[in-house]
Specification:
Radius of gyration: 18 Å
Strand content: 15-25%
Largest sheet: 7 strands, mixed
Order of helices and strands: EHHEEEEEHEHEHHEEHEHHEHEHE
Number of helices: 11
Structural class: alpha/beta
CATH class of the largest domain: Alpha Beta
Distance between the termini: 7 Å
Shape: globular
Length: 314
């Protein structure tokens, strides 16, 4: 029998703080070489959107995520992200579970954003913000709130930002500029227009850049990268493959491998994180299949606890 996790089942099985811990463990396992994954493969149909194939192996399981990103879909009444996550037994190849990819993506995106913020942000940070209140942004705000951070919320869509803030008991930022000036910021936007322009990052600020996860996307101007200490989730994917903000700078010859630190290496104490209170730290997320694997494994471990979970025979 194959367990089927709808979006609501993923959310029931993987509460925010458990997701945070699981994704942290995945970063550590990947940094130590215990969990492996090749860079994601893009099948593009631009300007409409793209399809992504993301495999990973670890913890006795293998995973494949087939997921989409079609930024124009909300205007059509459709979700930006759709797809499936397949979880298999790594020893005998049996398919164990099928999970809603959008829900898994939201949970692990939020966990990675918060993990980077907690690891790289200033210890005395007093203001937090989430910019972008779509599905992934809302989940990021939820996880930060669970950590006791109470971020302000901003989105270009007034209704969406107010709905997320009201649901979580948070405040809406007065302006986008106010949100972007917070000590710790998580940006989860389509990435078509940079949010941070030349000279706009504040000393001591940390930003988790979660939206620019594909070719041509950016949430910060390239010139600003030179003012910051740079971190990513995986160099081969985020840097060498040219994905996101750091990838664009690498392709332009403005950033080299030596200037970028993988977050997992900081977590296992093989690399330094923030140097001092004045450092600007940027974490550029390309989205890792090992993060999806961590969430899928955690969800699958809860099968016996979930009432009404569907199981099918293929």
């Amino acid at each position: 029998m194959v367990a089927v996790f709808r979006a609501e089942d993923v959310r029931r099985a993987v509460p925010p703080l458990e997701a945070y811990a699981a994704v942290r463990d995945a970063f550590v396992a990947h940094a130590r070489g215990e969990w492996t994954m090749p860079p994601k493969v893009y099948v593009t149909n631009y300007p409409a959107g793209d399809f992504r194939a993301m495999p990973a192996l670890g913890g006795g399981h293998a995973l494949l995520k087939w997921v989409t990103s079609f930024p124009g879909n909300p205007a059509r009444g459709l979700p930006t992200v759709t797809g499936l996550v397949l979880l298999s037994d790594a020893e005998d190849g049996r398919l164990l579970a099928v999970l809603d990819a959008a829900a898994v993506t939201a949970v692990r995106t939020a966990a990675a954003a918060a993990l980077a913020a907690e690891t790289l942000g200033r210890a005395d940070a007093s203001s937090w913000a989430v910019v972008g209140a779509g599905v992934n942004g809302a989940e990021s705000a939820r996880l930060l709130a669970a950590l006791g951070r109470a971020p302000v919320v901003w989105d270009v869509d007034e209704r969406r930002r107010r709905e997320v803030a009201d649901e979580l008991g948070l405040e809406v930022a007065e302006t986008a500029e106010d949100a972007l000036a917070s000590d710790v910021v998580v940006t989860v936007t389509p990435g078509s227009q940079p949010l941070y322009h030349s000279g706009s990052l504040r000393m001591g600020q940390h930003v988790s850049l979660m939206g620019a996860d594909g070719p041509g996307k950016a949430e910060v101007e390239v010139a600003e990268l030179g003012r910051a200490r740079l971190f990513c989730d995986d160099w081969e994917q985020a840097g060498a493959k040219g994905l996101g903000d750091i990838g664009l700078a690498c392709q332009a010859g403005l950033v080299t491998r030596e200037q970028v630190t993988q977050l997992g290496d900081v977590l296992i104490a093989e690399a330094a994180g923030r140097g001092n209170a004045d450092d600007i730290t940027l974490f550029d997320s390309s989205g890792l299949a090992v993060q999806d694997l961590a969430v899928a494994e955690l969800a699958y471990s809860k099968i016996s606890e979930l009432d009404g979970l569907q199981q099918i025979e293929l």
